[in-house]
Amino acid sequence: xxxxxxxxSWSTSGGRTTxxxxxxxxxxxxQQINVTKSKDREKxxxxxVAKVPSAIRDELEQxxxxxxxxxxxxxxxxxAEERASQSxxxxxxxxxxxxxxxxxxxxxxxxxxxSNDHRETHRVNSRSIRRWLGFLHFKATDTAANSQAISDAxxxxxxxxxxxxxxxxxxxxxxxxxxxxxxxxxxxxxxxVIVDSNGWRILESAETPVRFRRASGMRPLPVxxxxxxxxxxxxxxxxxxDAQWALLSAWMVASLRPTxxxxxxxxxxxxxxxxxxxxxxxxxxxDPYTTLLRRPPxxxxxxxxxxxxxxxVAYDNLS
Length: 319
Description:
Number of helices: 7
Number of strands: 12
Strand content: 15-25%
Helix content: 25-40%
């Protein structure tokens, strides 16, 4: 008879296959290898030949190539099924949560969800949402979700937000609300401050009546406290006479209005007069950001992108 048979079993993923080798009906080798790797196949053929010297290497190698192709196809089919199953599970977990899916006037999809006892809003197609979806899956199954499954779920959620969700306006840092002004503090708990004719108070995220979105470079404002005066800031910067201080004070107050028109702050002075420091200072007071000052824009598009992702746009060394 003198016949060698290699029987595979699909016990693992990633190309690793358990191979049972028989010679004249008797088992001579049972081993798990990665049949998709040529070095693993060559080593396995060497072991078979060592056990059965009459074996023909070319025939063994051809058999293993066929098994490798079948293994890859099988893994692909299983992976597609797993992705579809994970994606469906993720969508189910989202529906069970208190998420709100909506879109803005430009048709961009957003989601507001609860995280660590506070509410936060992000674009559906954002890193924050993907992290949240991955966490939902891990919390439910104690396993990591396939990245493609998360992408499939994101695509579906975008469609739900655009075609089924309501339309809402989103804001960065400052928003109008009736006769009030609401300022996003930018902290990890998504607190905001509401300012009206009676004063101000801090809002919890669930109390905030508008939807703030945040760019990745946005940094938190300090939590406000009662007392103090705007004039106390003057000693911290090089501003010159009272008239110049009045102009700067007016600009800082006007910059926290939710609607324009807005005055443009142009800082002039001799070299070494702390112009850059002044601009960095007021930017930190109004709208702290990772990069406080930007280089001059090369085109209008750069300016519009910067303006859409921050409240204050500050440029250094403009001519």
